Amino acid sequence: MKEAGADEIINNIADLIPLIESIDDQQHEIPLLLTPGPLTTSRTVKETMLIDHGTWDDDYKELTQWVRHELVAIGNASEDNYTAVLMQGSGSFGVEAMLGTAIPKQNATLLIAANGAYGERMIEIADYLAIPHVVLQVPEDQAVTLAAVEETLAAHPEVTHFAVVHCETTTGILNPIETIIPALADKGIITIVDAMSSFGGVPIDLEKLHVDYLITSSNKCVQGVPGFSIVLAKKTTLQETEGNARSLALDLYQQYRTFEDHDGKWRFTSPTHVVYAFAEALRELEQEGGVTARTHRYHTNETLLQEGMQKLGYELVINQNVQSPIITSFKYPTTSFNFRAFYEYLKERGFIIYPGKVSKCDSFRIGNIGEVSADDINRLLNLIKTYTKEKLQLPIGS
Ligand SMILES: *Cc1c(COP(=O)(O)O)cnc(C)c1O
Question: What are phi and psi of 271, to 5 degrees?
Answer without folding.
Answer: -80, 80
